[in-house]
Amino acid sequence: MQTYNNVFIFDHPLIRHKIAILRDEKTCTKEFRELIEEITILMTYECLREGVPTVTKTVKTPLEECQQTVVLDNSIAIVPILRAGLGMVSGIQVVFPSARVGHIGMYRDEETLEPKEYYCKLPEGIEEKLVLLVDPMLATGGSACDAIDLLKKRGCKNIKFMAIIGAPEGISKVAEAHPDVNVYVSTLDRQLDENGYILPGLGDAGDRLFGTK
Known about the structure:
- This protein has 6 helices and 13 strands.
- α1 (13-23) runs antiparallel to α2 and α2 (29-47) packs across α3 (86-95).
- Helices cover 32% and strands 31% of the residues.
- By secondary structure, the chain is an alpha/beta fold.
């Protein structure tokens, strides 16, 4: 796969360990959800190493006052792409409990493999926030690109996209269509199959998250 300046693929032993369990067809729904959350927490830490809105405030310790950098209040929004993206929200909220949450609903046409939007509800003032757009699987890249287009039409200028597993085809599509959006993927898989599923992948993330397999 071509190298892109806006694509970051993690290579962390803890994430690799959790991905191995996540892929296993024997992993139950409860454990699958927990793993998605745990991986998201680790990804969030790395994803927000740069570009987070901050301010300086005075903090009084038991010994003296000092200046500390803190994240600006109400400056971060989480936007999952429904429905599988919901599984990543709680992981980000562990790090940022006060983050606002929006929702973008899309489904994939089984014949064309193209995404179709059916729902969009975003926090007020989202255009001024750092937006974390999340979906566990970055396959063809169609849903991610359309969701980013939608956010940009709403005035969003600071967007980061997070996926747990990505295919080269989807990563390239998003990176080229939106060079101003950083793409964070914990694991790069081999390719897509003829039905647009990631190989080796982990199956349908939504079904495994919600027990509808």
